[in-house]
Amino acid sequence: MSGNIRQRLRDEIENEILTGHWVPGHRLDEVALANRFGVSRTPIREALLQLSAAGLIEVRPRRGAIVASVGAERLIEMFEVMAELEGLAGRLAVRRHTDADMKAILETHEACRQAAEAGDSDAYYYENERFHFAIYHAGHSQFLFEQCSALHRRLKPYRRLQLRVRNRVAKSFAEHEQVVAALTAGKEEAAGRALHDHVAIQGERFSDFIASLSHARSSDMRQSAAAKT
Amino acid sequence: MSGNIRQRLRDEIENEILTGHWVPGHRLDEVALANRFGVSRTPIREALLQLSAAGLIEVRPRRGAIVASVGAERLIEMFEVMAELEGLAGRLAVRRHTDADMKAILETHEACRQAAEAGDSDAYYYENERFHFAIYHAGHSQFLFEQCSALHRRLKPYRRLQLRVRNRVAKSFAEHEQVVAALTAGKEEAAGRALHDHVAIQGERFSDFIASLSHARSSDMRQSAAAKT
DNA sequence: TCGACGACCATTGTATACAAGTTTGTTGAC
DNA sequence: GTCAACAAACTTGTATACAATGGTCGTCGA
């Protein structure tokens, strides 16, 4: 139970950020975190530096670490890259999937269907994640799997918010159906395109979506600034 | 001149790895590095952890850090992803490039031509890098630029080795010509495909290439093991 | 009353000390 | 002679102390 402490800290802090519990711009106080987790500053610092290397936080020399703020343009860029990688994963999945891979994909697809029909966006959010990971896995490229996973996790909070938009769950599932159809038919290009568009469509709608989000954030910051005084 | 020490250490160590000065599997001794750079273990550890987050080294709890060994399959996977991202960068460059972007691309292209005609593979290696970065830049996607840069740097040593293969420089330049032609003609898909294939072709040839590389490495290790006794 | 300069305090960066674990070498027994 | 077990030394992980810097608050002057 040593050496894993840093790992645990990294995961906990990462989780706080990815769940949106800490707003972008939120300052990460080393001593406060050390007290909270009952450790010294050293492992905290090491965890923070790892997170900074992953791009989740920004460390400004002598001025502490803050949760990285992801601007609208950058978010769109990230979805753009994600779309490209998902497309690749889809094509590779068609070429390389085993029976077990396809079984896993179809199972998660069915779980998505149930969540979608129940109108349960939180359940859909969870099953959707499993569906995509099943496809990454079926591509049989460890590196691509890691890249996709990292980006997927990074975009998690925004994806979750978007699923709450009216009808988005139903549309998302319809897109999944196309993906599955192409996969089972063994149509490489179609599967790639379907997955690409499935992700890209989310990025494309973000221009206006972000506007409301950054609005909410600025009110949050006003709130926390007021609480500080 | 503080807080940059860690950055400097990170870059120095990263450089040692990327230039192939330290073989995969090489153990990174914290005190040795601390002595070498004239600092304490703390900033060394922090630099190492950042590198581990970037995937350049592996840290095994209580057992120290080693230079990550990149297996043949993984290397091919990385080129596969790189090809995909370069393709995207090419297509975006067609859509979004400014006059200055195109000027930069053509300039580096000409520099490549001169190096290729001179048969100077080292110069070509350098100019080739600038050429690709110019294209990443022309895509006007900060995130994509970062992803491409990181992967490009990561694959640097292998690319350099490959350029020494007979005729590879000439063939590489011929591929660049196609890329430039598609870019100037404004053909998005063609540019994307040309760049994709330009990178993918390198990965595809690695199966046999790696065999000789790992052979050379094992003889290196025998050598260093002999030197140790 | 507003702005600028200075001092103090809070927080980060680095070093060192201490604890815990892994590896290696030596010794003994089979 | 070889294998195993124990011990010591070396290496990593964590805590704490100290140094350095940036921000903030207060005071003084215009």
Task: Please tell me about this protein's structure.
Two copies of one chain form a homodimer. The first copy, chain A, has about 230 residues and is mainly alpha-helical. Chain A has two domains: about 5-70, Winged helix-like DNA-binding domain superfamily/Winged helix DNA-binding domain (Arc Repressor Mutant, subunit A, Orthogonal Bundle), CATH 1.10.10; about 70-210, Up-down Bundle (Four Helix Bundle (Hemerythrin (Met), subunit A)). In chain A, about 80% of the residues lie in helices and about 5% in strands. Chain A is built from ten helices and three strands. Chain A has helices at about 5-20, 30-35, 40-55, 70-95, 100-120, 120-140, 140-165, 170-185, 190-205, 205-229; strands at about 25-30, 55-60, 65. Chain A has a three-stranded antiparallel β-sheet with strand order 1-3-2. In chain A, a hairpin with a 3-residue loop joins strand 2 and strand 3. In chain A, helix 8 runs antiparallel to helix 9 (about 190-205). Chain A is elongated and about 55 Å long. Chain A starts with a helix and ends with a helix. Mean pLDDT of chain A is about 90; it is low at about 215-229. The interface of A and B includes residues 6, 52, 62, 73 and 77 of A. The structure holds a DNA duplex (30 and 30 nucleotides).
